Amino acid sequence: MKSGMKKTTDRAVVGIVTAIMLIGLIATVISIIQVVYVPKIMEQREAEHMDKVAEQFTSLTSIIDGQAADERKGIPIATSVTLGSRELPYLVSSKAFGTLEIFEKSCNITIKNETIDSTIQTSLFSLGTIGYSSTNAYFLDQSYIYEAGAMIVSQSQGNLMMIPPDFFVDNYTSNAVNISFDVVNISGVAEKTTAAGSGTYPIQTEFREISINKIFTDVQSITIATSFSNAWRILLNSSLTGAGLNNAGYGSQFFLNDTGQACKLEFRSSSPTVNISFKIIEIRAQIGPGWVD
């Protein structure tokens, strides 16, 4: 009898030890997945979400460009923007969040020119923008901005222009430089100017009017005051040098200064006369469903 009881007890102990080992093995596997693989999976998820937002802002830019060219009033068009991404089921992970917002007068453009009576005129134009900013848990935070007709991507390391505005050197001769610069001013509708979270929200845009359509002659400087001055500096430099103007060394015809908060383009007194055809297209926008007139 005693021998039989001992065998039974041994089998019970072996069963308990086996169960403990299995639980330990499962816990180890789950810990490895949680520590090693979950961050990589979530980082990839958030990177894909950033690519998706970039595509959505590209679509938004295209729609606004079409509305500006068509100039038809009373036809709001919606573009969806996904603010965040979901966490993984059953495992410990964090959601990604985002904020979509319409900013009033966040970009200022100043044009300084000499008038016919030889006086210096300074014209200031304040523009509204649309911005998305992410709050990621694993991937690098990014912002996408629609500003003055351009689409800009911004990270902690800097900012670049993904889609340029309508800025063209139409004609450059030894006597004159003729520039065309069309910008978009975004104005919010009612109080529907912001959304935050992880869901998908529509942003609706509508053409309103052409508020400014003017030619500035004998332009001395253009200043674009914005947090994304590096993107504008690269655009202005590439556009002017691509047209044949010189920005380096002897005989420089223009000079660019980027302070991080403003990009200033100055034309040398020895350069040809600079004329700018400047237009502001007014676009109304609201975030969320249901258009408010």
Layout of SSEs?
Blueprint: H1 2-70, E1 77-82, E2 97-114, E3 120-135, E4 143-147, E5 150-155, E6 158-163, E7 166-172, E8 176-188, E9 194-197, E10 200-216, E11 219-225, H2 229-242, E12 254-258, E13 262-267, E14 273-287
Parallel strand pairs: 8-14
Antiparallel strand pairs: 1-10, 2-3, 2-9, 2-11, 3-4, 4-5, 5-6, 7-8, 10-14, 11-13, 12-13
SS-derived structural category: alpha+beta
- The counted number of beta strands is 14
Shape: elongated
Give me the strand/helix succession: HEEEEEEEEEEEHEEE
- Mind describing the biggest β-sheet? 9 strands, antiparallel
How many helices? 2
Please estimate the helix content.
Answer: 25-40%
Count of the separate structural domains: 1
Uncertain residue segments: none
Q: Ends: how far apart?
A: 93 Å
Give a description of the structure:
The protein is an alpha+beta fold and 293 residues long. It has one domain. The protein has helices at 2-70, 229-242, and strands at residues 77-82, 97-114, 120-135, 143-147, 150-155, 158-163, 166-172, 176-188, 194-197, 200-216, 219-225, 254-258, 262-267, 273-287. Strands 2, 3, 4, 5, 6, 9, 11, 12 and 13 form a nine-stranded antiparallel sheet that branches. The mean pLDDT is 88.
